[in-house]
Amino acid sequence: MISKIFYSFLSFLFLVPVYSWAIDPPASVANAFSSKYHAVQPTWEKATGMYLAAFVKNGQNIKAAFKEDGTFLREDVVLPFSQLPQQVRMDASQRFGESNIVESASYTDAFGQVGYRIRYQKGNTRVDVMYNAQNVISQRAILE
User: Fold this and answer.
1) Among 23, 58, 28, which Cα is nearest to 40's?
2) Which bin fits 45, alpha (ψ -120 to 50), beta or left (φ > 0)?
3) Distance between CA 33 and CA 125 in Å, rounded?
4) Which domains are seen in the chain, by residue range?
5) Distance CA 131, CA 95 (A)
6) How far is CA 59 from CA 10, 20, 51, 114, 144, in A?
């Protein structure tokens, strides 16, 4: 009996952070997403100054970023870490530790600029780091 309660408690502790990351965006963001990606049901995350919609498009895992007012920022295509440029992989491994990298992607922003994104996690903190086309860090965002 005690072990069943203990395991239920542990399950609760580990599930809460996972579910707390999924949120509902403001109507401006949801409407902008619906206009751009018709009939797609995303999972939402909030990061510093933006909302991220995760979904599948043409068999690829995609994340689209929008400002709070609904302005489209970028579209990420999730890729294995090994498919990023060597300079990005080396920099990210040295800065964040490859074992802490939980997601990687290429992106195209609203102006057609291409770059790469690394998501790393330390404890409960998740951070997206953006590399520009020159493979230099251009932006960081903490996921809430």
Assistant:
1) 58
2) beta
3) 26
4) 22-143 (3.10.450)
5) 13
6) 35, 26, 22, 21, 27
Residue 8 CA to residue 79 CA, distance in Å, equals 35
Helix, coil or strand: residue 43: strand
* Alpha-carbon span 30 to 46, nearest angstrom: 13
Instruction: Give the tens place of pLDDT for each residue, 102-114.
Output: 999 999 999 999 9
Confidence of residue 21 (pLDDT cuts 50, 70, 90): low
Q: Which pTM does this prediction carry?
A: 0.80
In tens, the pLDDT along 75-102 reads 999 999 999 999 999 999 999 999 999 9
Distance between CA atoms of 58 and 46, rounded to whole angstroms?
Answer: 24
